[in-house]
């Protein structure tokens, strides 16, 4: 019986290690994928374009005002996108953890 227990314990440890590595790879992959999908609004892009044009025309005061507006909008959008990304990550992580728990429960059931 102790041979069986040792084998079961070893299988359990291997599964836990596999799950940990899988989870770490998943976190890296999902963050990279979501960062690629993050895009700023058309309004922000237009403000940045207008700012660049004003600088080229040497209208620095107007460019500074546009830059301040664009900076505020960018900060707002970045925070919003980060919050959305975090919610998506948490949901997908929970789903992966649940799947891993089911696999662990199946191993323990045997």
Radius of gyration: 25 Å
Task: Give the overall silhouette.
Answer: rod-shaped
Note the total helix count.
Answer: 3
Work out the strand percent: under 5%
Structural class: mainly alpha
Largest sheet: none
Integer average pLDDT? 88
Please give the oligomerization state of what you see. Answer: single chain
Distance between the termini: 14 Å
Low-confidence stretches: none
Element string (H = helix, E = strand): HHH
The percent range for helix content is over 70%
Strands, count: 0
Explain this structure to me?
By secondary structure, the protein is mostly helical. The chain has helices at 2-37, 42-56, 60-109. Helix 2 (42-56) runs antiparallel to helix 3. The two termini are 14 Å apart. The mean pLDDT is 88.
List the helices and strands and how they pair.
Layout: H1 2-37, H2 42-56, H3 60-109
Helix pairs in contact: 1-3, 2-3
Task: Provide tags for this entry.
mainly alpha, 3 helices, 92% helix, single chain, 110 residues
What is the gist of this entry?
The chain is mainly alpha-helical and 110 residues long. It has 3 helices and no strands.
């Amino acid at each position: 019986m102790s041979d069986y227990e040792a084998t079961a314990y070893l299988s359990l440890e291997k599964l836990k290690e596999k799950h940990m590595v899988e989870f770490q790879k998943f976190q890296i992959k999902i963050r990279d994928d979501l960062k690629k999908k993050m895009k700023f609004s058309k309004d922000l892009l237009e403000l940045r374009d207008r700012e660049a044009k004003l600088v080229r025309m040497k209208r620095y005061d107007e460019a500074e005002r546009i830059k301040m507006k664009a900076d505020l909008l960018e900060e707002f959008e970045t925070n919003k996108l980060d919050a959305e990304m975090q919610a998506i990550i948490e949901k997908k992580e929970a789903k992966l953890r649940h799947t891993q728990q089911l696999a662990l429960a199946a191993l323990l059931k045997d």
